[in-house]
Write a structure and sequence with these properties.
With 110 residues, this protein is mainly alpha-helical. Helices cover 67% and strands 9% of the residues.
Amino acid sequence: MILRRTLLLILEGVSVLAFFATVVVALMFIAAETPSEAMARGLGSVPAGCEVGFYTGGRYFCWYRLANHPILFSLTLVIMVALAAAMKRLLKISLSGVTPNKSLERTRER
């Protein structure tokens, strides 16, 4: 019982961290600036060879342009939704005290 709860807690923690990481990646896609936009803001310049930059920590870092990488952005959103569903499922399992196998058995009986 303790091992099960510990495992659920670890899985919930990993899924929450991964979810927030995908949120940050999605926001980086949205907030990325082209070199001309970066120069207009006057905060610095996008590193040479980068299609766009993401401003954080007082400088620009290379990132991907949403218009050039829509599949990568879509994949980020799909992973975000999958992680949200996993978090919901893990929370439901941990609150109900039912193991995933028992809930599947109940479904098959109906």
